[in-house]
Description:
Helices cover 38% and strands 15% of the residues. The chain has helices spanning 2-14, 17-29, 33-45, 55-62, 122-138, 160-163, 182-189, 195-199, 208-214, 239-242, 253-260, 305-320, 338-342, 345-358, 373-378, 402-409, 416-427; strands spanning 69-71, 94-101, 104-111, 142-145, 267-269, 277-284, 287-294, 325-331, 363-372, 388-391, 396-398. Helix 12 (305-320) links the parallel strand 7 (287-294) and strand 8 (325-331).
Amino acid sequence: MYREAFTRNYKCIISPFTRVSYIHPYAKSFGRISALTPIRLREYASGNTKEELTARERIDLLLDPGSFREYDTFVEHQCTDFGMEKNKIIGDGVVTGHGTINGRRIFVFSQDFTAFGGSLSKMHAQKICKIMDKAVLVGAPVVGLNDSGGARIQEGGAVYSPALTDFTFMVRDTSYLFVTGPDVVKAVTNEDVTQEELGGAKAHTVNVRDFIDFLPLSNREQAPTRYTDDPITREDPSLNHIIPFDSTKAYDVRDVILRLVDDTNFFEVMPDYAKNIVIGFARMGGQTVSIVGNQPSVSSGVLDINCSVKAARFVRFCDAFNIPIITLVDVPGFLPGTAQEHNGIIRHGAKLLYAYAEATVPKITIILRKAYGGAYDVMSSKHLRGDINYAWPTGEIAVMGAKGAVEIIFRHVEDRTQAEKEYIGRYFK
């Protein structure tokens, strides 16, 4: 009995729109199908001056052509207060359903700002929760295209939903994310602030399809393997010259990453936040891998609060979805200063330490140049159960740099310069 019930439910999930297709003739006979057409026309006709895409156009661009199957097309809100019973729009401001990206099933919802401002009502929320429940049942990801003014006042925080997701994509000058808008901020604090300043998109990434293609459908599956002409035995002599031997000279760690991965294809995550560390996805031998690397061209690649939190969250995500982690180390230490100490650099730095220590996926660490002090330990060192640790010929593993060591060891010596040369000659050959 239970198996038969599960089979019926499963078939409803895999091919749900057949039922809706049968509803159409009956809906038309009752005059409801005529109400659906103005909604789609309204999406096209009531766009703002930026000519934004409609909810369905966004879904069509995201998914494989012709793969979208919509749920609950004719759902309406049930509110009877404030005259809302006279103002109903089919779909209630959100389009939900499932489709495919590169042939792999995903569930998707797209909020329609032209219908009640995309605001969140009871039925609106139930439509979204329905596809989330189905996604959990079949083990598929959910992509939400948020375009909402918030909770529907007549019924009773839409902004919290993106905070519960794994990754959030935002479009500069179009996407804004805040709990209270500029008008409320001005009324409460008398502070003039624009939408962009309050909750604008400092991180800008557009290719959601590429991002999805790197990931498994759920934590119960493996990431997809993609064919590549890039041989796994390829050698790149330019790697011998990218990293300067002088530890004070900067370079871009992304130049190293692009030469290590398949087809120079690296999908960076959060590129405009905490730029002193680089995180993202790539492939090696066709297999998805994640990469964490210190960025010497920004603050010498030093670890601070923001980059520690950024990397820790990424490591935990990769561990949850069985994605191997490759760490490229060139770190002089933690950022010193009262601001960092007072804001909790110890607590936030420990987040990255715990993330690496608790990760059970394969972890490969490559020391490109500097690996100093506690920051070296935090960056997936062998002391945190790193599976394989390599060192570049330019690698330096030490408690601190030569200059700092001389300042402490020879603090009573008059000729510090000579002492520094002797120290470097002895330990940094």
